[in-house]
Amino acid sequence: MALLGIGGLVTACGGGSPGSGVARPGKNPASTGSSSASRGSAASRERIALAYVNCMRTHGEPNMPDPTSTGAGTHISVSAGSGVDPNSPQFARATNACKHLLSGTSTGAGGSTAATTPSPQSGAATDCLTTRHCYAPRQFLTAYGVEPLLDRGITGHGVTVVLPEEAETGPARPQPITNLLQSVTDIRKDLAAFDSRFGLPPAHLHVIKTLAGASASPWLAGVEEVEDTELVHAIAPDATIREFPVDVAGVSTPAKLATTFASYVRTAVSDGEVMSQSGIGQTFNVGESSWTSAEVARMNSALKYAAARHLTVVVASGDYGAIGNGSSKPLREVSLPASDPWVLAVGGSTLTANPITGTYQSETAWNTPSESPDASGGGFSRLFARPSYQHGVPRIGATRGVPDVAGEATGTSGMALVFPAPGAGEELIGAGGTSAAAPFWAGLIALADQKAGHALGFVNPAIYRIAQSPMYHKAFHDITTGNNTVTLNGTTITGYQAGAGWDPVTGWGTPNAQVLIPLLARYASQ
Predict the structure, then answer these.
(1) Which of 363, 401, 435, 481: CA 20 to 30 A from 169?
(2) Is the pTM of this model over 0.85?
(3) How far apart are CA 502 and CA 395, in angstroms?
(4) Is the pLDDT of residue 291 over 80?
């Protein structure tokens, strides 16, 4: 979003003169003139300051102090002993990475760069960090306890995550936010921009072309593929990612999807340790009632094959709440393949964390009220009996309960993704839907695989053992508020309530990865 009508922001980066809007460490910050401060609201100034500090912390200055606001403006004052050295090369690199948030910069004495009064920018792309309260990767990873693992070298090194995606044909055609779902871009360039923006290492990216179709361009990606890839890369930055483009014609009906799904699951066994299924098959109803018994059996057989060969298959539970994903009928049911007991089914949540530090604050079940379904998929299977790992779990009856776990899915409070804007520039948009929660968990499993030193494969029994142990509330954020009741064509379909422990909206909840991942590596290896 353009920085419109923004008042004066003084960034006290140290080492400058009052005239440059720079305050030396240990001194009072300088301020701009009142005329510039009057051009925007205090809230606008604070949002810019928060975004700037957030960016600086993301790019290697974790001790960057919080901004403060007074009648004279919003200031960021760096004092001696704060752990921030405005004259260091690291500070210069961070400043260079974050100056896009401000329209003007000036260089004070000592070579540090200081922000001065921002002015409106024409043609600026959407930036959810400043307009929609999404989280930069570092804040997002902090909220879910991933950052301490990365700091200890648990980064997914040596693990491969396979991402089946709908294949795209050229040419590349970036779209504005209003038409983002039609965007097609070069995934290599997208990842490079994402890495540059947030200080991540280059991605280890490969393509499996066997099911892409003759007309596909293997490196072109739709929105879902970009979302999946950037999330996995943020969570497990040293994991290898294998894109698996699939010809759209091969997934255009439940029957075709069942056959193609079985094919790419079996292929993934030899190409990786983790597979995330989310965006494929979103153009039709994938509720259990849509499939024949033969189709169900075909997918189930492939998933059993994968589990026996230590491939973890992670599947989004769907975005239609208590009805089948993509349904046009008000029928309360769960979706396939999420309801298959051989997958780790992932529902959705809405995260609230400190926008600066990323400290976890609270969470509720994802449900965005609207005239169309927009909530965490969940409920009980009509096809599969309760698996052994769900025995003894309160609220689960005779059949498979969905989902197993959850991840952030709201979008406005999701992790920031980078998309190229039409013409030039970038758009930062929060990851959303259970199709964001699934690759999030795929990345987590990659960390657990590295921690264990081998592929963990079918992790559900270990997840449930941990959740039913005294470590549950240390390893998971138990989500106890919200529901997945939705409205379809004016008809309300009553769903389920989140509650203590497992529930058919968010499963066991979301991870505190710094506790969960070491436990999962140990429990799943037993």
Answers:
(1) 435
(2) no
(3) 7
(4) yes
